[in-house]
Design brief:
Elements (H helix, E strand, L loop, with lengths): L11 H6 L10 E8 L5 E3 L7 E3 L1 H13 L4 E7 L16 H12 L4 E6 L13 E2 L2 E2 L1 H18 L3 E4 L6 H11 L6 E8 L6 H6 L20 H13 L3 E5 L5 H10 L4 E5 L1 H12 L5 H15 L3 E4 L2 H10 L2
Parallel strand pairs: 1-3, 1-4, 1-12, 4-5, 5-8, 8-9, 9-10, 10-11, 11-12
Antiparallel strand pairs: 2-3, 6-7
Bound molecules: ligand PBG.
């Protein structure tokens, strides 16, 4: 026998030398939930080790992430009040706007990304403005654009629309440009499926739809060609980076979008993916830390350049321990 692949698996050193995919904290974008009030961190029951932070708490957490080599956070806001049209989403004294300013004051080099969507800010929990109980695409674009501009004004480096309205990347780009925020980037959740894996997030961000579901605007999990169409449209509308979400059940989509699209590609390792690992680990059924690293590696190997993940700090710790 001449061909023995095991030769290259004989020692940790040789395995490391021929390793095709490597992870680094620089790959991670760390999601943070921020809300009003003085309580620095309130645990999120379905997401162990994740919290809703106050402004002070979120700055502390961002500092800790930065010290671990994580370059970026993505912010989600829980507003003080909700209404039918998401008014608090674009308020200058809104929770996300305040968090951006506080993080940028303390960590000017950290890349601050913000989620642009109305579901946390509407009392009905849908991602846009309703008209006869349907989300009205074009009316929603105006509010999303105002939200994006308010984030840019507060100092966000990148805005990340996650609402799945048609034409929102183009609308946000032109509104940013007309207000002279030409340097603010757009990371588009271009390929976002209508997924049950968002369950824990909806508890964390208090954004469960009060009736119906999001299938009228988020994508059908059965579709792959449509993913490429969405990615190309957003690229043409001026997105700087695009995202596939969720990650693990859609690794094939990450690969296909990677091959079709020239932009940096992010994947969102969502709340349900996180919660499953934590729950099985707590039951003693899996080694959560090893499963985490295997999952993150698979997302990178599939073709993602960046991974939005609640595991960011934990994985950075593991990577820091590796020799
Ligand atoms: C807001 C938004 C959601 C997530 C990110 N942005 C929820 C949804 O679309 O229902 C989910 C993230 C996660 O599950 O970790 N539209």
């Amino acid at each position: 026998m001449k061909i023995r692949p095991r030769r290259l698996r004989q020692s940790p050193t040789i395995r490391e030398m021929v390793r095709e995919t490597t992870l680094s904290p620089i790959d991670f974008i760390y999601p943070l939930f921020v809300k009003h009030g003085q309580i620095e961190r309130e645990p999120i029951p379905s997401m162990p080790d994740q919290y809703q932070f106050s402004i002070d708490g979120v700055v502390q957490e961002a500092k800790e992430a930065w010290s671990l080599g994580i370059p970026s956070v993505i912010l989600f806001g829980i507003p003080d009040t909700k209404d039918a049209v998401g008014t608090r989403s674009y308020a200058e004294d809104g929770i996300v706007q305040m968090a951006i300013r506080a993080i940028k004051d303390n960590l000017p080099e950290m890349v601050v990304v913000t989620d642009v969507c109305l579901c946390e800010y509407t009392e009905h929990g849908h991602c846009g403005i309703l008209n006869n109980n349907e989300v009205d695409n074009d009316a929603t674009l105006e509010v999303l654009s105002r939200q994006a501009v308010s984030h840019a004004r507060a100092g966000a480096d990148i805005v990340a629309p996650s609402d799945m309205m048609d034409g929102r990347v183009g609308a946000i780009r032109s509104e940013l440009d007309s207000k002279h925020f030409t340097d603010t980037g757009i990371l588009s959740y271009a390929v976002k499926y209508a997924s049950a894996f968002y369950g824990p997030f909806r508890e964390a961000a208090d954004c469960t739809p009060q009736f119906g579901d999001r299938a009228g605007y988020q994508m059908d999990p059965a579709n792959a060609l449509e993913a490429i169409k969405e990615a190309i449209l957003d690229m043409e509308e001026g997105a700087d980076m695009i995202m596939v979400k969720p990650a693990l059940p859609y690794l094939d989509i990450i690969r296909r979008v990677r091959e079709e699209c020239l932009l940096p590609l992010a994947a969102y390792n969502v709340s349900g993916e996180y919660a499953m690992v934590k729950a099985a680990h707590e039951k003693g059924w899996i080694d959560g830390s090893r499963v985490m690293m295997e999952m993150l590696t698979s997302i990178k190997r599939a073709g993602a350049d960046l991974i939005v993940t609640y595991f960011a700090k934990e994985a950075a710790h593991v990577l820091g321990q590796a020799k």
